[in-house]
């Protein structure tokens, strides 16, 4: 397929980048991408454009990542769960209870470790240039889930991450990978009995209408990433790369500022819609997933990465970069 970012040889001054995502327009990250598009336009005096294809218009995330590798898209939004099946390095972010708190999440994801991971897939035809916070993911269903035993026999929608699939199995549920945009009808038709996500996504997708119990076991904090095709990146000149990166960094800051507000608003809205937030003792969930860590650490590369993360969490001077 011909690359859609076509820069004429004599005039590399007008560029349109195509970004695909499967989020709805209200999603905090979708709003941040619009912020980024405006800034790109402004900083380049109208010579660079970001054309956004939202709502899975271009397909599910896994599919769009493939399209980007083939040159049909320049940028794709993906969570670390989507990326895990493209490169194992992203599996670490899918480990349950990896970060003791959100400050440590930021320290790792926006610090040197995150940078290293984001750059590491260049030879696969893409790499990540932006990272976004995504709170905690917890279970929701039409009944409370207070202990792993409550998950027995329940089909739970997951993203297509092998680590998440193992996690749900260890907790006692049946994992069912489904694209984000198809979860509403899967819940409605009983294809799954529940799902897991952060509070804003639970509300913005209207899953709250179908699953009134949000049980806060807070099993994972999975970052979102903006990925770019390596060949698109190489075709941009230095100035264009700088403009893109400035707009990406500013979109990260914008998203972090929005996040807490949106999280709080979503909770209020969910309660108004009849949702119950259930407090959960995390200890039995943590215990159930211990074999996942044991298995993960058998790979020396994984063990090294996990050690680096623990060290970063313990050090007080290793501040996030943005
Ligand atoms: C969150 C996350 C998305 C992801 C979605 C999902 O909303 O921000 O990137 O696609 O969860 O569960 O699929």
TrEMBL record:
Pfam families: DctP (PF03480)
GO cellular component terms listed in the entry, alphabetical order: outer membrane-bounded periplasmic space
Domain of life per record: Bacteria
GO biological process, one term: transmembrane transport
Xref: NCBIfam families: dctP, TRAP_S1
Family matches, as PANTHER family: DICARBOXYLATE-BINDING PERIPLASMIC PROTEIN, PTHR33376
Name the record gives this protein: TRAP transporter substrate-binding protein
Naturally occurring in which organism (per UniProt): Kushneria phosphatilytica
């Amino acid at each position: 397929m011909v690359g859609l970012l076509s820069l004429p040889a004599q005039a590399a001054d007008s560029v349109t980048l195509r970004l695909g995502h499967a989020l709805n327009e209200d999603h905090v990250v979708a709003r941040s991408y619009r912020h980024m598009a405006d800034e790109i336009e402004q900083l380049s005096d109208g010579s660079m454009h970001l054309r956004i294809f939202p709502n899975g218009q271009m397909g599910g995330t896994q599919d769009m990542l493939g399209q980007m590798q083939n040159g049909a898209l320049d940028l794709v939004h993906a969570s670390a769960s989507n990326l895990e099946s493209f490169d194992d390095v992203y599996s670490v972010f899918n480990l349950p209870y990896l970060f003791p708190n959100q400050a440590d999440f930021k320290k790792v994801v926006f610090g040197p470790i995150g940078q290293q991971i984001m750059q590491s897939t260049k030879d696969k035809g893409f790499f990540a240039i932006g990272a976004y916070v995504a709170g905690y993911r917890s279970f929701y269903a039409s009944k409370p889930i207070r202990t792993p035993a409550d998950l027995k026999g329940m089909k739970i929608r997951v993203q297509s991450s092998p680590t998440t699939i193992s996690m749900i199995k260890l907790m006692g549920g049946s994992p069912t990978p489904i694209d984000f945009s198809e979860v509403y009808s899967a819940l409605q038709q009983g294809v799954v009995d529940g799902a897991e996500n952060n509070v804003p996504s639970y509300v913005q997708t209207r899953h709250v209408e179908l699953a009134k119990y949000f049980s806060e076991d807070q099993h994972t904090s999975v970052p979102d990433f903006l990925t770019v095709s390596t060949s698109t990146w190489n075709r941009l000149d230095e100035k264009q790369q700088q403009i893109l990166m400035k707009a990406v960094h500013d979109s990260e800051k914008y998203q972090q500022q929005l996040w807490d507000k949106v999280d709080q608003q979503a909770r209020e809205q969910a309660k108004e819609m009849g949702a119950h937030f259930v407090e959960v003792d995390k200890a039995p969930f943590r215990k159930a997933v211990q074999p996942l860590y044991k298995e993960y650490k058998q790979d020396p590369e994984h063990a090294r990465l996990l050690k680096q993360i623990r060290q970063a969490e313990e050090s007080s001077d290793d501040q996030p970069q943005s």
